[in-house]
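During the first year of the project, the team set up a workflow for recording each protein of interest as an amino acid sequence followed immediately by a discrete structure-token representation. This format lets reviewers and collaborators read both layers of information side by side without switching files. As required by the reporting guidelines, we include two representative entries from the current panel. The first entry is reproduced here exactly as it appears in our internal archive.
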Amino acid sequence: MKIEQALITQLMILLNVKNGKNRPSEISKELDITLQGVVYHLKILREKRYIDADNKITKSGFDFLYNGLNNIENFVHSSLINIDASLIWESISDDDVNGGDRLYLYMKDGYLHATKKGKKAAFGKSIRPTKKDQCAGVTDVNGIIPVNPAKITVLLLENIERIGKIYEYENSVVEKINNINYDFIGIVGELSRIITESRKIDVKFEYAAIESSFEAAKRGFSTLVIISDRLFHFALNNIKELQTKNPEIEINFIHV
């Protein structure tokens, strides 16, 4: 499938029109393309009757937009499949295998395993001989590897200057923790460390806890991250970026 640059530009302009932006200057700023370019493509869209004289999308324009975006989605999906097929995946081999053996893939304890036995939803081909319990390279992967749904809960602590009696506040924190389902706890900052140490709470991630929580969630483990409100503001941009890269991961925020 061939996707022309002009088609992509026209679809993006038409999408902006559909969303209420009908001034060329608005669209130019939104898409970061020249005003002359926007005017040129609007003229083409108008000639094709995809927009009307007031730069509003028409019925045929909506159909063109819908079909065009679907074609791009199919192109991206097929491209990702081709890329995935050419990648070499790391896995823990459950068996002695030879190069070229078909291996079935599944997740166990957060790690990808490969086995010659049984049938799983995903499978691939061993790239070389590998002993049992060693790292096997698997290529030509097909299918979907099932991963248990996981989520991240961020427990936001009060800033230290707003806390009265620390022992009473710790009780409130422990009460919240006891009502949250999680596999691992991560902490950010000194206050969260003091509280978890004081109450003998087992902590899995002490550094890069935000990043580790997303990595754990991708592997099927739900994580609780404890952080003060002050430090949360410094981490917010990082969290938003990770959310954008991992939209399938649910994240919830709870204040204490």
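The second entry, processed by the same pipeline in the following quarter, appears below.
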Amino acid sequence: MDNGYGAYGQVDQEVLVTRHAPLVKKIAYHLVSRLPASVQVDDLIQAGMLGLLDAANQYKATQGASFETYATIRVRGAMLDELRRNDWAPKSVHKRVRDLTSAMNVVEMRTGRDATDREVAEEMGISLEEYHSILLESNTRRMTSFDDINSSEDDNREQFSDEAPEPTERIAEDQFRSGLAAAIDSLPEREKLIIALYYDEELNLKEIGMILEVSESRVSQLMSQAHARLRVRMREHTQ
């Protein structure tokens, strides 16, 4: 039986790429289910195939991990890199998101508790409808930046790196993760549940809406609000 390796354990790159091409589609469809409708699955598949080719070229059987594990990381990484390069959110969206985060910080510093939708809207001098619109824009921007989704990928890539991180870098990473865990735990219960369902259970917005019995757009708003709170509470780790 052909196991994908040539003589002396060398990897047969063509066999590996052909055999694992379905893996690229599987990963692409999994990611696109969690993204705005404007993201085309064919673009993800194209980027993923390039990642698969790169994985086949770079893989060494002596690395310990299976090729499928290695390829999964490289394929997902290639898709995420492609999405980052094509962040289509206009500058006005980025500014409104910064303004929203700053207003939320002002309210929470003043009141000592979680800011409500209406309080943040009043601080920004806009209507509640405009505030909710910015939350939806913020969610699209966040989901295309992939800072959150990619954190687990970075952890997995480390096992294939030839260079160990500096001790100070490892301490900083550990402190960031601890701070993030505490920040998530401090969220209002509904927002914390949405974060858990999205990232831990890997449900999409529509599925979360069915569980909470709210619309998909409302889930999107609450998720954006949760990320705004996290940005406020994680400032000391990101400055």
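For the second entry, the following points were noted during internal review. The radius of gyration is 21 Å. The chain has a mean pLDDT of 77. Both points are flagged for discussion at the upcoming steering committee meeting.
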